[in-house]
Design brief:
The C terminus is likely disordered. The chain is built from ten helices and eleven strands. The protein is α/β, with parallel strands linked by helices. A seven-stranded mixed β-sheet has the order 3-9-8-7-6-4-5, sandwiched between helices. Strands 1-2 form a two-stranded antiparallel sheet. Strands 10-11 form a two-stranded antiparallel ribbon. The longest helix is centred in the first third of the chain and has 21 residues. The structure holds pyridoxal-5'-phosphate (PLP). Pyridoxal-5'-phosphate binds next to helix 3.
Length: 354
C-alpha cells in the first residue's frame, strides 16, 4: 500500500470493461457500488485463467490440477490474512458473503453460548443481515435483543449512555463498521475495547468497510469480522469470516459434509480444526481465486487512498446537495463514506437497508 501516491482516478475506469458501454444513450456511470461493485479486468482474467488452466477440486485430488487448485485456494487464504492483518491464515474462513459469516457465528457460537436471559446488543443502524440472524437466535435460545440508538438526522450512534446498554447481561455485541444507509463510520476499536472489559464477544460487519479503508483485526480488537467479496471488486458468492482462533476452535461445526471431518463412521464423526471445520463441501474455488485478485487490485491503489477519495466525493456531494431546496440530508457531514442506494451515492435518504 502506498498512501502518498497520487492516483489518476479517471484512468481507473479503463480497468472496468463493463463501463465501456452506453446506457440510455449515455456513457455508463455506475453509482451502486455499495450494493455490489463492478469487476476490474484483473479479477475477470484471474477467473478465466483459473477455469482455463487449473480447475479441479481442492484438498482431495492427488493429481496436478487438484494440487494447483489447492495451492491457489490456500494462497488466497494467506492473502486475506494479510489484507486483515490477521496473525494466521487459519483464522480465515471462506463463506458465501457477510450474511453467511454472521449466520455461521449466530448458529455455531450463539447456539453454544446463549441461554434465556442473555442479551444480544445490536445498533439501530444494522443491515438486515446483521439483524435477522440474531432475531432467529433470540427466538431459539430465549435471549433478548437490545439496541444502541441512533441520533437524529446525523445518524451516528448515541454513545453517551453506552453503559446503559452494554451491561454484563450482554453476551454478544454485533455492529456495523460503516453503515450502508447513512455512511456513518463507527468507532470500532473503542466499542470493542469497552465490550472486552465486560467479557462481551464482538462481531463487526465489515461489508461496507472492507473495500473502503484499511482493516486491521488486531488493532480493531474484535472477536469476529465478516465481509463480502462482491462489494470489493471480487466475485459474487464469496466472502470471509475472520475469527479469533481460540474462539473458533471452541465452536461446533456450522454445516456437516465433506472436507470438515477428521474421521467418520456410521454413528459419530470428528471434526477438523478451524478454518476447515467451517467449510463443509466443495467451496467456491474460483470465487476465492477472484477474491485474491480483487485484494491485489485494491491494495495496488491503496485503501488509504480509496478512503481519502471517498471522503472527498462524499463531502463534495453533501455540500452541493445542502444547497438544494427541499432536500433533507441524513448521515454525518464529516468522516463518512458514500452510502448505498441513494441517488447521488452520498446518502440523502435512508435506504431500505435490505
Ligand atoms: C452493512 C451491510 N452488511 C451486510 C450486508 C450483506 O452483504 P451480503 O449480501 O453480501 O451478504 C450488506 C449488503 O448490502 C451491507 O451493506
Amino acid at each position: 500500500m502506498n498512501p502518498t501516491k497520487s492516483i489518476d482516478w479517471l484512468s481507473l475506469r479503463a480497468d472496468f470493461p463493463i463501463l465501456d458501454q452506453e446506457v440510455h444513450g449515455h456513457l455508463l456511470i455506475y453509482f451502486d457500488n455499495a450494493a455490489s461493485s463492478q469487476k476490474p479486468r484483473a479479477v475477470i482474467d484471474a477467473l478465466r485463467y483459473y477455469y482455463e488452466h487449473d480447475n479441479a477440486n481442492v484438498h482431495r485430488g492427488i493429481h496436478e490440477l487438484s494440487n494447483r487448485a489447492t495451492i491457489a485456494f490456500e494462497a488466497a487464504r494467506e492473502r486475506v490474512a494479510k489484507f486483515l492483518n490477521a496473525k494466521s491464515a487459519d483464522e480465515i474462513i471462506f463463506t458465501r458473503g457477510t450474511t453467511e459469516g454472521i449466520n455461521l457465528v449466530a448458529n455455531s457460537w450463539g447456539g453454544k453460548n446463549l441461554k434465556p436471559g442473555d442479551q444480544i446488543l445490536l445498533t439501530e443502524m444494522e443491515h438486515h443481515s446483521n439483524l435477522v440472524p440474531w432475531q432467529l437466535l433470540a427466538e431459539r435460545t430465549g435471549a433478548k435483543l437490545v439496541y444502541v440508538p441512533v441520533t437524529g438526522d446525523e445518524g451516528v450512534l448515541d454513545l453517551s449512555k453506552l453503559d446503559q446498554w452494554l451491561t454484563p447481561q450482554v453476551k454478544l455485541f454485533a455492529f456495523t463498521h460503516i453503515s450502508n444507509s447513512l455512511g456513518t463510520i463507527n468507532p470500532v476499536a473503542e466499542l470493542c475495547a469497552r465490550a472486552r472489559k465486560l467479557g462481551v464477544t464482538t462481531l463487526v460487519d465489515a461489508a461496507q468497510s472492507a473495500g473502503h479503508k484499511p482493516l486491521d483485526v488486531q488493532a480493531l480488537g474484535c472477536d469476529f469480522l465478516a465481509f463480502s467479496g462482491h462489494k470489493i471488486c471480487g466475485p459474487t458468492g464469496i466472502g470471509v469470516l475472520w475469527g479469533r482462533p481460540e474462539i473458533l476452535d471452541s465452536m461446533p461445526p456450522y454445516q456437516g459434509g465433506g472436507e470438515m471431518i477428521l474421521t467418520v463412521d456410521f454413528f459419530k464423526s470428528t471434526y477438523k480444526k478451524a478454518p476447515h471445520r467451517f467449510e463443509a463441501g466443495t467451496p467456491d474455488i474460483s470465487g476465492v481465486v477472484g477474491l485474491h485478485a480483487a485484494l491485489d487490485y485494491l491494495d495496488a491503489i491503496g485503501r488509504e487512498n480509496i478512503f481519502k477519495h471517498d471522503q472527498e466525493l462524499a463531502s463534495y456531494a453533501y455540500d452541493r446537495l445542502s444547497e438544494m431546496k427541499g432536500v433533507r440530508l441524513f448521515g454525518p457531514k464529516a468522516d463518512r463514506v458514500p452510502a448505498e442506494r441513494q441517488a447521488s451515492s452520498v446518502g440523502f435518504g435512508i435506504s431500505n437497508a435490505g
